[in-house]
Specification:
Helix content: 25-40%
Structural class: alpha/beta
Distance between the termini: 42 Å
Number of strands: 16
Number of helices: 12
Number of domains: 2
Bound molecules: adenosine-5'-triphosphate
CATH class of the largest domain: Alpha Beta
CATH topology of the largest domain: Rossmann fold
Largest sheet: 6 strands, mixed
Shape: globular
Length: 368
């Protein structure tokens, strides 16, 4: 198997017109990790990525994969060992989805049948219906096309996956799905992944390590995302990660928050209502027969009132979850109380904002 770490050693790229796209880059991508190259437009992320599979050759310095200088590996062999996914999925328009995915196994000399079976199983891997296999790329949504692009990149089972803004052209909901699936794939298939994006949230969500590129192709910081958020290396990184960095950094804290015992159960006919006491400011949480939260009743509203006005949204807190999710659940709740649910969605209790803040204080104390 060997090791598929990727190393940049003093790499510089100056294009023929004199533009220095990458300036003295040295960086190690550990095997089996997901490293994100992030930074504003034009700072050399794509150029750096493409030097890994030799779509771009460095002006000086070396890129090594598995300890071997890639410039000594024949391009065709190198690219077979690296899946490449780009923004516009890059699918062949006149071939069906299955044919697109099967292209690489066919090139590798697998039989037609074997390639087709591999393509079909990959459709499943990336969460697409098998029925879509016979369609042409133009008959798919943007998100589906990106999934097929990922399936095609995985078709040869390459140890390295290079992804250049693969999810930037799809809407936020589909994007969140694709990100979740990538994290899931990463768990299941042990691959070294380099992922380019200009979106810091995406970098924080996906990256084991994040390389922040600055204008002029300079590597400003290379560290786990939590460290980039908590301790930006310089003014550039601090400006780039933005004003919300303290809030984002809460994603990494999962300090225990005390569940308030302020909910009391009253069975009233079909529904169960919780709360309605002074401690909840008079708000009452309505739950369904399985104990899952439905919506809040404002003080003075009687059971049977329309709770849809105060529906419990997607922002629920799971005990053990991050403090960011706890705070968000409290801030987005009409009652100001975060609803805590267990894995099956049943209400466990509520969190008061002051308890979340106290937990944030404690987490801060525990770090310093
Ligand atoms: N073939 C080329 N010839 C000349 N300059 C180039 C070429 N390709 C890229 N550049 C320049 O090199 C710099 C880095 O480009 P690159 O595409 O690597 O940046 P990027 O960080 O990936 O940007 P984006 O997020 O916009 O894709 C830019 O100034 C770009 O204009």
């Amino acid at each position: 198997m060997g090791n598929h770490a990727i190393s940049f050693r003093d790499v510089r790229k100056t294009y023929p017109d004199g533009t220095t796209a990458v300036d003295d880059l040295s960086l190690d991508v550990p095997e089996g990790s997901l490293t994100v190259f992030v930074g504003p437009s034009g700072c050399g992320k794509t150029t750096s990525l493409r030097m890994i599979n030799r779509m771009v050759e460095p002006t000086s310095g070396t890129v090594e994969v598995n300890g071997q200088d890639v410039s000594s590996v024949p391009e065709a062999r190198l690219r077979r060992s690296m899946g490449y996914v780009m923004q516009a999925s890059g699918l062949l328009p006149h071939r069906t989805v299955l044919e697109n995915i099967a292209t690489v196994p066919r090139l590798l000399g697998r039989s037609k049948r074997e390639s087709r079976e591999r393509a079909e199983s990959l459709l499943e891997t990336i969460g697409l219906d098998r029925d879509l296999g016979g369609r042409y790329p133009s008959q798919l949504s943007g998100g589906q096309q990106q999934r097929v692009g990922v399936a095609r990149a995985l078709a040869a089972d390459p140890p390295v996956l290079l992804m250049d803004e693969p999810f930037s052209a799809v809407d936020p909901v589909v994007r969140a799905d694709l990100q979740r699936e990538l994290l899931d794939l990463k768990q299941r298939l042990n691959k070294t992944i380099v992922f380019v994006t200009h979106d810091m949230d995406e970098a924080v969500l996906l990256g084991d390590r994040v390389a922040v590129f600055a204008t002029g192709g300079r590597l400003a910081q290379y560290a786990p995302p939590e460290q980039v958020l908590r301790a930006p290396a310089d003014q550039f990184v601090s400006d780039f990660v933005g004003r919300d960095r303290g809030f984002r950094a809460l994603s990494f804290d999962s300090h225990e928050v005390a569940l308030s015992g302020v909910l009391s159960r009253n069975h009233e006919g079909e529904t169960t209502v919780l709360g309605g006491s002074e401690a909840t400011g008079g708000w009452t949480l309505e739950v369904d027969a399985a104990g899952r939260p439905v919506g809040w009743l404002a003080p003075g509203e009687s059971d049977g009132a329309d709770t849809s006005a105060h529906r419990v949204g997607g922002s629920l807190y799971r005990p053990g979850g991050s403090l960011r999710s706890a705070l968000d659940a409290a801030l987005s709740s009409p009652s100001g109380l975060a609803v805590a649910v267990d894995d099956s969605g049943r209400v466990r209790g509520v969190l008061r904002p002051q308890d979340v803040l106290a937990a944030i204080e404690q987490a801060r104390g525990a770090r310093s």
